[in-house]
Write a structure and sequence with these properties.
Distance between the termini: 59 Å
Low-confidence stretches: none
Number of strands: 6
Structural class: alpha+beta
Strand order of the largest sheet: 1-2-3
Shape: elongated
Oligomer: single chain
Strand content: 15-25%
Radius of gyration: 22 Å
Order of helices and strands: EEEEEHHEHHH
């Protein structure tokens, strides 16, 4: 590791700690040339997950798009931004765990609907109406009836 103070390439690790629920390691280092102390972080580099859109186009999985979709469904609902962030992290981790390289966008929609059903039923119906492309009020009513069952 190159020292940020003098550029020397030799250092000594003086402390290591687990961070982010075991997803990474923070290391305190000291330069063997100038004795400058600095920290490095080590984590898992996951293979990039791609989303297969309905039209067959592939695009990179984007947590911000996931968050925006959930936030739009939860607009003016009693769902805090912390709850939304937690949902995004939960869903993102689950998707990364369940899929290696590619995931159909329809599967992401199902994950989101299942999560929103637990958090806020109105947000769930809002999301479902866009995801399933409801064409009339009857489809809304059917979905709400299914929720009550």
């Amino acid at each position: 590791m190159k020292c940020p103070a003098c550029g020397f390439l030799d250092d000594k690790v003086v402390d290591s700690r687990v961070i982010k629920d075991g997803a990474g390691v923070r290391r305190r280092r000291v330069c063997l040339n100038c004795s400058h102390r600095f920290s490095t972080y080590e984590g898992i580099i996951r293979e990039e997950l791609r989303v297969i859109k309905r039209n067959g186009v592939l695009e990179e999985f984007d947590k911000d798009k996931l968050r925006n979709g959930i936030a739009n469904a939860c607009y003016k609902r009693p769902v805090s931004s912390d709850q939304i962030d937690a949902l995004v992290e939960e869903l993102s981790s689950q998707i990364q765990k369940d899929f290696d390289k590619d995931i159909p966008s329809s599967d992401i929609g199902i994950y989101v609907m299942n999560a929103l059903r637990r958090v806020d039923q109105v947000a769930y119906v809002r999301f479902a109406s866009v995801y399933r492309k409801f064409k009339d009020v009857e489809e809304f009513i059917d979905e709400i009836r299914a929720l009550n069952d």
